[in-house]
Design a protein that fits this description.
Elements lengths: L1 E9 L2 E8 L7 E9 L5 H7 L27 E8 L11 E4 L6 E5 L4 E2 L6 H4 L2 H14 L6 E5 L3 H10 L6 E5 L3 H10 L3 E3 L6 H8 L5 E6 L6 H8 E9 L16 H4 L2 E4 L15 H15 L5 E5 L4 H10 L6 E5 L1
Parallel strand pairs: 8-9, 8-11, 9-10, 11-12, 12-13, 14-15
Antiparallel strand pairs: 1-2, 3-4, 3-6, 3-15, 4-5, 5-7
């Protein structure tokens, strides 16, 4: 069987390359992709060539050792067409989620495929990696009854995380993003207010929206290193800043010479590839996946799909995210 796979060949250049797939061997399955979801955040660093060229190998194998040309992506929903030896033939026809690059078909070990829960739409399931990130961020935030929270960045991961945080009995939950489309989505997801961080009086407006006090926790998920200074200015004494952004080659210049020295503010790096050590005695990947599936059923994130592109228009999709990010939340490639 022939497959078409999307390759990033240089900054802002993508192309489809054809390859022949082998028949599935022991423990494997052949699957045909129905949907794949480009990441408007991490994947755009790859598209723009802003990823570190010498990233140390780590548990985050998807983002390790990146170099052109490469097939990159991690959110596919596919239909199993054929099973190999040792695999239950009844799986043929089932829908699965796979951490695969953008490709029309693939052969993979069945152990790496995740069956969709009954009734969950494919367009919701394709959000699985971003929702798992949102679950991980929420666990790292560890919100408490009556706390005030601020989320900087309302792209897809920001919206998903805010949707989960809204379920906690917080005193206030406020968000910020540069783009009106994202702010509108954030308000619908449950933010008490969603502000433009480019406003000159942003800090004053944020304090008012939070109820007159600084935030107990700030989630920085905007992808913009300068947002960390907003987080520092708006976090109260002994509060915590959870950094979910991957900045790639972008540098953060922090204002640490003022009140920060006496603030006892914690800066916490959160990344989905590992479970917080304090939780690892009770939580593992399997339990977190189960929680993620339930969160997808509850949030129904397909509400944020703004574009559906045919594979032939992949270059247009990435150009949209690169040049007009204010017009899109989550585009999909639909086969």
């Amino acid at each position: 069987m022939k497959a078409q796979t999307l390759f990033f060949t240089a900054p802002r250049q993508v192309e489809w390359r054809e390859n022949t797939l082998p028949a599935p061997s022991q423990g494997e399955a052949l699957a045909r992709t129905l949907l794949s979801a480009p990441s408007p955040g991490t994947e755009m660093l790859v598209y723009r060539g802003q990823f570190p060229r010498r990233l140390a190998a780590s548990a985050d194998s998807i983002s390790a050792n990146l170099r052109y040309p490469l097939a990159y992506g991690y959110a596919c929903v596919a239909e199993i067409l054929q099973t190999g030896p040792g695999v239950d033939e009844a799986l043929a026809g089932r829908l699965v989620f796979a951490f695969q690059p953008h490709t029309s078909a693939f052969v993979a070990p069945v152990s790496t495929l995740h069956l969709l829960p009954p009734g969950l739409p494919a367009e919701a399931a394709v959000f699985l990696p971003n929702m798992e990130t949102a679950v991980s961020l929420t666990q790292d935030i560890a919100p408490l009854l009556g706390e005030r929270g601020l989320a900087l960045g309302q792209g897809i991961v920001g919206l998903l995380t805010l949707s989960l945080l809204k379920r906690f009995p917080l005193e206030s939950l406020v968000s910020a993003d540069r783009f009106p489309l994202r702010r509108q989505a954030s308000l619908r997801a449950g933010a008490a207010a969603s502000l433009d961080p480019a406003q000159r009086d942003f800090h004053t407006l944020a304090l008012q929206a939070l109820g007159g006090e600084k935030a107990d926790f700030v989630l920085e998920i905007s992808g913009a290193p300068q947002a960390l200074n907003d987080a520092l200015a708006l976090t109260r004494f002994s509060g915590r800043i959870i950094i979910g952004s991957w900045y790639g080659q972008k540098r953060a210049t922090l204002a640490l010479g003022g009140d920060f020295h006496r603030s006892r503010i914690q800066l916490f790096a959160s990344q989905v590839s590992a479970i917080r050590p304090e939780l690892s005695g009770r939580w593992d990947k399997s339990r977190r996946f189960a929680t993620t599936w339930r969160a997808l059923e509850q949030v129904q994130p397909q509400q944020w799909v703004t574009h559906r592109f045919a594979p032939a228009r992949a270059a247009d999709l990435y150009r949209l995210l690169d040049e007009s990010p204010q017009e899109a939340l989550q585009p999909l490639i639909k086969w």
